[in-house]
Amino acid sequence: MRADARRNRQRILRAAREVFAEHGIDAPMAGVARRAGVGVATLYRRFPTRDDLVRAAFAHQMHACARVLHEAVADPDPWRGFQRLVETVCELQSAERGFPEAFVAAFPDSAREHAKMREKASQELIRLIRRAQAAGALRPDFHPSDLAVVLLAHSGLVTALPGDRAASRRLVAYLLEAFRAEPARGTLPDPSSLPLDGLPLVAGPRPSPA
């Protein structure tokens, strides 16, 4: 690939991550091209479909998730593996706001190789969950789809408080404690620095003194 073609590709991928973070992965492809400063024809020449673009834009994050999932399944302590998986995916989500939707989204079955990767990942996740439940560490009613719910909940926090890693770590710690078969009641990470008057339930007009 020529140097100018590589630069165009990198600009497109960077723009795609920004646009998907702001408007979701269904954002118009023309908006991505405009943000990247390239023509729509150039974008489609590099990425014929939206799914091609989404996969390429978040390839690093997807591979990181696949690696940590593999390591979690191989960990002799299934709870430690499960905990590290949840923490890592949420860290990736904090670093790249468009990632969770791409992670949760179902891609077309016509992308055969990607479909096989998703199937393998699903099997490994189910195996990890069952091992943690069999060990008495993970509550028996936890379902694999609950991980998607975790990401969607965490996504709301990341959107509202971008860059607040303390709030992210604390929420993840709360969720992990809720998933334990027997909560350890350990010490939570430090709280967020968000002031209470920034919360919606206390942010309305103050009552006049009597």
TrEMBL record:
Which spans does this entry mark as compositional bias, Low complexity?
188-201
Q: Which PROSITE patterns does the entry link to?
A: HTH_TETR_2 (PS50977)
Q: Does the keyword Transcription regulation apply?
A: yes
Q: What are the residue boundaries of the HTH tetR-type domain, all occurrences included?
A: 6-65
Q: Which Pfam families match?
A: TetR_C_43, TetR_N
Provide the alphabetized UniProt keywords: DNA-binding, Transcription, Transcription regulation
DNA-binding region(s), chain positions: 28-47
Region (Disordered): which ranges?
A: 185-210
Q: Which organism is it from?
A: Streptomyces hirsutus
On whether Lipoprotein is a keyword of this UniProt record, the answer is no
Name assigned to this protein? TetR/AcrR family transcriptional regulator
